[in-house]
């Protein structure tokens, strides 16, 4: 097992999930129920399942497409999202 990759993945996901809507939902659910342990196991199981599905899908796509093309697709996708957020913001201040 690649311990460096394991640690990097853990730190990245941990930091990105702090204050996420999933965490806020878990806080709200555990505050209103008598079994916060059930909320923890439900939320942890859901996060594990979605992470597993993401890793499996990423591995399958990486088998089909070269890494350079995947990076280019991701870069273009993020650039489009950034442009839409910056240029086409329809909310009034």
TrEMBL record:
GO terms for molecular function: metal ion transmembrane transporter activity. InterPro entries: GDT1-like. GO terms for cellular component: membrane. It comes from the Bacteria. It is found in: Membrane. Keywords: Membrane, Transmembrane, Transmembrane helix. The keyword Membrane applies. The chain crosses the membrane at residues 38-62, 69-87. Pfam families: GDT1. It is a multi-pass membrane protein. The keyword Membrane applies. Belongs to the GDT1 family. This is GDT1 family protein.
């Amino acid at each position: 097992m690649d311990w460096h990759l394991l640690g990097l993945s853990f730190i990245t996901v941990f930091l990105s999930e702090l204050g996420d809507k999933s965490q806020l939902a878990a806080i709200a659910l555990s505050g209103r129920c008598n079994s916060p342990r059930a909320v923890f196991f439900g939320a942890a199981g859901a996060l594990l399942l979605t992470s597993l599905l993401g890793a499996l899908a990423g591995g399958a796509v990486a088998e089909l497409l070269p890494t350079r093309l995947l990076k280019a697709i991701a870069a273009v996708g993020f650039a489009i999202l950034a442009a839409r957020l910056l240029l086409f913001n329809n909310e009034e201040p």
